[in-house]
């Protein structure tokens, strides 16, 4: 029994060198196989690397083709400009340098440049043949003729007036057919004389006849018999402003006032036949004849004018009654 283990051990120890030798042999063979495989792969990659890589052909240059073609310049539209402007443009085109920065002739741009020069030269010649702007006659439409019916009505009402030459102005100011109004029927004076268009002068004359005279006559009737001046009730009307080229309320940036068109007048007061003066002023609590007269003629003016502004309307009209014929949509009127 004891001899068998010893025998087995001897056999085991005898086989160990063989086993170890086989392991070494296997390890070497495995390593050699891996190296061989790597060399094969390297050879394949090297062969692939030696193959020529195709180079894509360059795309045709659009710019070169576009430059090769000779563009035909489009005809320029005729513009009414001073010949000097067109000529200066043609001169600048003629002096253009056909050489590039290197001093070499730019062949790709020579054809368009020559064509452009020829076309601009034609334009310059055509421009020179045209008359200059200052030589051309500017057609100005004549002003509308004066309203003969309006003038006839002014005369019928006994208005003292005379026509004036056209008044011009900037920014829309002016009167095509102005009239100087200096008085009304019955010897009533307008101080100072006013410059108005016919329509405004007629509205003023109608207001004097229909509103001012009757109201002043009633005011005179309140006087004692000794103070009554006879048939004449109003001696004069004092006005503060008629035609003047200015913005509304003389405020910078405001719209043009109706005064700038000769379609407005400011009434500052009246002088009765007995010398009594009635000055326009705030009279809300004034229960005198003067207060009643001012209120009557002010309200009556709303029947003849589209705008009536007086004391209490705003701070700009505290010392006069503004009357004008401003046109508004829907026939809207302002009566204050």
Give the overall pLDDT as a whole number.
74
State the helix count. Answer: 7
Strand content: 15-25%
- Oligomeric grouping of the chains: single chain
Unreliably modeled segments = 44-50, 62-69, 77-118
Globally, the shape reads globular
Largest sheet entry: 9 strands, mixed
H/E element sequence:
HHHHHEEEEEHEEEHEEE
Termini separation: 148 Å
Number of strands: 11
Structure description:
The structure is a single chain. With 336 residues, the protein is an alpha+beta fold. Among the domains are: 83-98 and 105-131; 148-335, no CATH class. It has seven helices and eleven strands. The chain has helices at residues 3-50, 62-68, 83-94, 107-129, 148-156, 198-221, 289-301, and strands spanning 160-163, 167-168, 174-175, 179-184, 188-196, 234-241, 264-272, 277-279, 307-309, 321-324, 334-335. Strands 1, 4, 5, 6, 7, 8, 9, 10 and 11 form a nine-stranded mixed β-sheet that branches. Strands 2-3 form a two-stranded antiparallel ribbon. The protein is globular and about 145 Å long. The termini are far apart. Mean pLDDT is 74; it is low at 44-50, 62-69 and 77-118.
């Amino acid at each position: 029994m004891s001899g068998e283990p010893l025998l087995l051990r001897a056999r085991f120890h005898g086989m160990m060198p063989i086993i170890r030798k086989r392991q070494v042999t296997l390890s070497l063979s495995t390593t050699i196989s891996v190296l061989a495989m790597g060399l094969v792969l390297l050879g394949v990659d090297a062969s692939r690397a030696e193959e020529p890589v195709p180079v894509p052909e360059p795309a045709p240059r659009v710019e070169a083709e576009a430059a090769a073609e000779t563009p035909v310049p489009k005809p320029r539209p005729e513009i009414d400009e001073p010949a000097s402007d067109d000529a200066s443009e043609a001169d600048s085109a003629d002096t253009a340098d056909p050489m590039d920065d290197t001093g070499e002739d730019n062949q790709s741009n020579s054809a368009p440049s020559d064509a452009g020069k020829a076309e601009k030269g034609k334009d310059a010649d055509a421009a020179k043949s045209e008359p200059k702007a200052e030589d051309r006659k500017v057609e100005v439409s004549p002003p509308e003729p004066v309203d003969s019916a309006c003038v006839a009505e002014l005369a019928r009402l006994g208005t003292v007036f005379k026509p004036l030459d056209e008044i011009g102005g900037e920014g829309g100011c002016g009167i095509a057919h102005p009239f100087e109004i200096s008085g009304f029927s019955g010897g009533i004076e307008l101080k100072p004389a006013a410059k108005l268009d016919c329509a405004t002068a007629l509205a003023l004359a109608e207001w004097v006849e229909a509103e001012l005279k009757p109201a002043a006559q009633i005011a005179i009737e309140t006087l004692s018999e000794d103070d009554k001046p006879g048939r004449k009730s109003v001696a004069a009307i004092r006005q503060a402003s008629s035609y003047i080229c200015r913005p509304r309320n003389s405020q910078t940036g405001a719209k043009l006032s109706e005064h700038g068109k000769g379609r407005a007048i400011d009434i500052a007061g009246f002088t009765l036949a007995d010398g009594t003066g009635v000055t326009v002023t705030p009279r809300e609590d004034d229960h005198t004849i003067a207060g009643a007269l001012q209120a009557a003629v002010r309200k009556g003016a709303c029947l003849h004018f589209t705008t009536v502004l007086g004391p209490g309307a705003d701070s700009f009209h505290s010392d006069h009654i503004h009357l004008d014929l401003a046109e508004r949509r829907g026939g809207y009127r302002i009566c204050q």
